[in-house]
Amino acid sequence: MTKPGDGEVGDSGTWKASAESKDKAKKLRIYAIVLWLAGIAVEIGAIFGLLLNDSILTEKATVDDKGVLTSTNGFPTWAFALLIALLVIDGILVVIGSMLWKKANEYDPASKADTVRFFVQNQLGAFIPIIAFLPIIILIFLNKNMDKTQKGVAGAVGIVVALAAVVLGIDFNPESVEKYTAEKQAVIQLLGKDEVFWAGGGQVYHVCGNVPDLSDSTVESGKTADAVAAGKPRLTLKLESELKACNRAVPNNVDEIVAAIRDVQQGKSEEQVLPSPDWTGVDNAPSGGAIDTLNDAIKDVKDAA
Fold it and tell me: Which stretches of sequence are listed as region Disordered (predicted)?
């Protein structure tokens, strides 16, 4: 069996994004900003090219209440169809940008300790659609050349697409430095060092490389920060079975530790320091220098919290 505490703990403090993660996040954020700007450009083009462009208006003959034939400017059908198309295109660009932005935050999350940055960085995708849609929606309803049906349809499309973009842009359970630190601490407490395993598929990393989830795959290993850089932002919750698969000691309170990790992952808890493993009576449990090493690692995380 392998005892927790074998090897060196290494970097046991607050989780930090790797250089690879930061590079990936930077590129994704650039792509997101470009798409957001493209969406806003589509909005501006629709406003000045269609809604505020009198040169595209067609002469429309109408009869008033008194039976008098009058001539008014009308919003052409082709322009109305193009407006609807541009609203949809605007929404697609904005939503894809928001998805890329949220993915970037998985690679390089903000800390909850920095309240303003944490909120802005994680919810920016919900505010961009307001910029990309509110002005054009207002101008649609204020347009004097569109008839009631055109205003109603275009306005409804704009509102629906805008609301969908806002909802899809919200990050209801954003990643955070604290969340990743809690998972890193759990790994160190159970294994004695920051070393995990992952493969190409899935969204989680593992505490053992010899598990069914990694079978028939090329298994990679590294620190928790390396796993995040590889697109695995969460620690598996199958801790008991995985520890047994690698002949490692399983603490008595493994279920309590798993429950605490689950709460952190689901945003129900902001605890950065998880319950300490209970090794009482456990075969091959860490002792002596090994337990001292684990306690030092836990202390490092507590001091950083």
Answer: 268-293
Of the chain, the percentage scoring pLDDT greater than 90 comes to 73
Chain position carrying tokens 């430095």: 177
Task: Report CA torsion sign: 147, 150, 151, 152.
Answer: positive
37 part of a folded domain:
yes
Please report, for residues 4, 96, 244, 293, 299, the alpha-carbon distance to residue 289 in angstroms, rounded to integers and kept in the order given: 11, 51, 23, 6, 15
Three-state SS annotation for 292-304: HHHHHHHHHHHHH
What count of other Cβ atoms lies within 10 Å of the Cβ of residue 257?
21
Provide the domain count of the chain: 2
Three-class SS of residue 105? helix
What's the rounded Cα separation, in Å, for the pair 151 and 7? 69
Nearest residue to 194 via CA among 2, 3, 8: 8
Q: Say which amino acid occupies 206.
A: H
Q: Which domain holds residue 77?
A: 19-169
> Looking only at Cα atoms, what is the longest distance across the chain?
101
Q: What is the pLDDT of residues 4-32, one digit of tens each?
A: 555 444 455 789 999 999 999 999 999 99
Determine the Cα–Cα distance for residues 115 and 66; give it in Å rounded to an integer. 64
Boundary (domain end) residue, out of 134, 169, 204: 169
Is 33 among the domain residues? yes
Residue 272 and residue 177: Cα distance in Å, rounded? 9
Tokens (6 digits) for 157 = 């499309």
Pick the closest to residue 179 from 256, 274, 250 (CA basis): 274
Query: 231, exposed or middle or buried, with CB in 10 Å at 0-12, 13-18, 19+?
Result: middle
What gap in Å lies between CA 18 and CA 185, rounded to an integer?
17
Q: Are 128 and 97 in contact (CB under 8 A)?
A: yes
Residues 6 or more apart from 99 whose CB is under 8 A from it? Answer: 125, 168
| Residue 71 phi, psi dihedral angles, 5° rounding | -115, 125
